[in-house]
């Protein structure tokens, strides 16, 4: 599905002669743009890496716990924008940021672990 | 008081009543089993191998109980692939004590992932301990997913709010506190306003001579804030206990034994029965610390506590599983 979309996107870009950067429409996204729509955060050694991440609106971030202890990913706002279940080693949590803003978050089990997502 | 023996260390008062060198020596012994007793600000320590030669008046007393902590049932990573086995070894250790303790305190992280089967397994294993009564306070691993509802259903009978409570045994007043709920980003453990108000009221009418034992999961003193090893509002709690002549604070969470004396308050943390953690700052993070398999049981342990009527402080003895 991905490959066919990116080929279609490249074709569309070539035809139009313009790179299409509208991330809201999957059909016209280039392969470079597609790589941007999913970002990874690694959880290891009681820290989020990278600690601060700036992404475009519409990006899906996937947190993967590589630590040997469980962690959570919980936004600090109220009501909570996102809140993962408990992630044991190798478990993942994904969230798609559809609204611009700054989203500080932390691990509710080990609150000294903090991170931040900036959506532009 | 017993006469001087070869491995008995008697240390003079410092200007603040504490001999820090003596404490460091005693803490180094703690892993292999040391008996550290503070009497009137003076530290006496005896190696466990000489315990039989110490007068029973010094050793036993009116009340004895055991603290176990951080069983993390469900943990199965290399630091300890058999937390069932090590918990059973801890129970064997308890059952092997010369004086059967009256009850046990579990200072939290009973389970690793708050799963019902994890709690069930711990309950099952503790059934074979000679002390039949166990009093619990939750660790952060026990209140995942449901804001502690399951923990309260299992262990919170008679408790208030997030699970705090008190009880009396042979004239000693025990207070179980909860400092693992409503943790804030970037923060430490927290007791909260409601619990602090309850505590103030709970101890208000007690005589100053009543020995107090407070038990909670996260240390109530600042062991290492960078790793979250402390409680934000514990100073307020300790202020309510200032009037008492003997306060013993028993905590877990850091998976190693540590002790500190501040005036009339003795703070003590227990080893885990599951896996050790590094000393403050000695590693990148406070996660499970791998040790050679044959050394594992020597860094896990239980804590035996004895109260002798008329003595100033409770005698707190750590012993490792091997």
- Low-pLDDT ranges of chain B: 1-44, 46-51, 56-60
Name the beta content range of chain B.
Answer: 15-25%
Rg of chain B (C-alpha, Å):
18 Å
Helix content of chain A: 10-25%
- What is the end-to-end distance of chain A? 27 Å
Q: What string, H for helix and E for strand, traces the elements of chain A in order? A: HHEEEEEEEE
Q: So, CATH architecture of the largest domain in chain A?
A: Sandwich
Q: What is the CATH superfamily label of the largest domain in chain B?
A: Metallo-dependent phosphatases
CATH class of the largest domain in chain A: Mainly Beta
Apparent shape of chain B: globular
Describe this structure in words.
Chain A has 120 residues and is of the alpha/beta class. Chain A folds into 2 domains: 1-35, no CATH class; 37-119, Immunoglobulin-like (Sandwich), CATH 2.60.40. In chain A, 18% of the residues lie in helices and 32% in strands. Chain A is built from 2 helices and 8 strands. Chain A has a 4-stranded mixed β-sheet with strand order 2-1-4-6. The model of chain A is unreliable at 15-29 (pLDDT under 50). By secondary structure, chain B is of the alpha/beta class. Chain B has 2 domains: 1-59, no CATH class; 63-320, Purple Acid Phosphatase, chain A, domain 2, CATH 3.60.21. Chain B is built from 7 helices and 14 strands. Chain B has helices spanning 20-30, 56-59, 83-95, 116-126, 149-155, 193-203, 234-240; strands at 9-10, 34-39, 42-47, 63-68, 103-106, 133-136, 165-169, 172-176, 212-215, 247-251, 258-262, 265-269, 301-307, 315-320. Chain B has an 8-stranded mixed β-sheet with strand order 1-3-2-14-13-4-5-6, sandwiched between helices. A 6-stranded mixed β-sheet of chain B has the order 7-8-9-10-12-11, with no helix packed on it. In chain B, a hairpin with a 2-residue loop joins strand 11 and strand 12 (265-269). In chain B, helix 3 (83-95) packs parallel to helix 4. The longest helix of chain B has 13 residues, at 83-95. In chain B, 48% of the residues are buried. Mean pLDDT of chain B is 85; it is low at 1-44, 46-51 and 56-60. Classes of the chains: A alpha/beta (120), B alpha/beta (322). Chain A binds chain B through residues 45-47, 67-70, 72, 76, 85-86, 88-89, 104-106, 108-112, 114, and chain B through 77-79, 112-114, 140-141, 144-145, 183-188, 226-228, 284-288.
């Amino acid at each position: 599905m991905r490959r066919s979309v990116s080929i279609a996107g490249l074709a569309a870009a070539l035809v139009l002669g313009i790179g299409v950067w509208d991330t809201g429409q999957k059909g016209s996204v280039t392969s470079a743009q597609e790589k941007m729509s999913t970002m990874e955060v690694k959880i290891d050694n009681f820290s989020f890496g990278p600690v601060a991440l700036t992404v475009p609106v519409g990006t899906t971030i996937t947190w993967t716990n590589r630590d040997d202890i469980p962690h959570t990913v919980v936004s600090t706002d109220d009501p909570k924008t996102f809140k993962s279940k408990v992630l044991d080693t190798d478990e993942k949590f994904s969230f798609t940021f559809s609204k611009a803003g700054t989203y500080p978050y932390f691990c509710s089990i080990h609150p000294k672990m903090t991170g931040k997502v900036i959506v532009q | 008081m017993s006469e001087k023996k070869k491995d008995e260390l008697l240390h003079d008062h410092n200007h603040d009543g504490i001999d820090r060198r003596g404490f460091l020596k005693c803490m180094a012994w703690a892993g292999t089993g040391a008996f550290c007793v503070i009497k009137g600000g003076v530290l006496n320590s005896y190696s466990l191998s000489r315990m039989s030669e110490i007068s029973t008046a010094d050793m036993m007393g009116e009340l004895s109980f055991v603290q176990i902590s951080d069983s993390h049932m469900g943990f199965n990573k290399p630091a300890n692939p058999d937390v069932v086995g090590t918990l059973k070894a801890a129970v064997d250790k308890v059952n092997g004590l010369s004086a059967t303790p009256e009850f046990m305190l579990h200072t939290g992280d009973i389970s690793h992932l708050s799963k019902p089967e994890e709690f069930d397994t711990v309950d099952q294993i503790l059934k074979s301990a000679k002390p039949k009564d166990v009093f619990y306070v939750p660790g952060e691993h026990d209140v995942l997913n449901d804001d502690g509802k399951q923990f309260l259903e299992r262990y919170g009978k008679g408790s208030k709010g997030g699970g705090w409570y008190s009880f009396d045994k042979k004239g000693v007043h025990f207070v179980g506190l909860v400092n693992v709920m409503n943790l804030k980003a970037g923060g430490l453990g927290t007791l909260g306003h409601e619990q602090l108000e309850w505590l103030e009221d709970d101890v208000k009418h007690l005589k100053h001579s009543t020995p107090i034992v407070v038990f909670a999961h996260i240390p109530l003193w600042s062991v290492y804030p960078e790793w979250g090893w402390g409680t934000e509002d514990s100073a307020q709690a300790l202020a309510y206990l200032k009037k008492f002549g003997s306060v013993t604070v028993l905590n877990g969470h850091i998976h190693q034994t540590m002790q500190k004396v501040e005036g009339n308050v003795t703070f003590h943390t227990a080893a885990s029965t599951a896996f050790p953690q590094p000393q403050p700052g000695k590693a990148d993070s406070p996660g499970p610390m791998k040790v050679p398999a044959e050394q594992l049981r020597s860094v896990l342990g239980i804590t035996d506590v004895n109260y002798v009527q008329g003595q100033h402080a409770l005698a707190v003895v750590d012993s490792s599983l091997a």
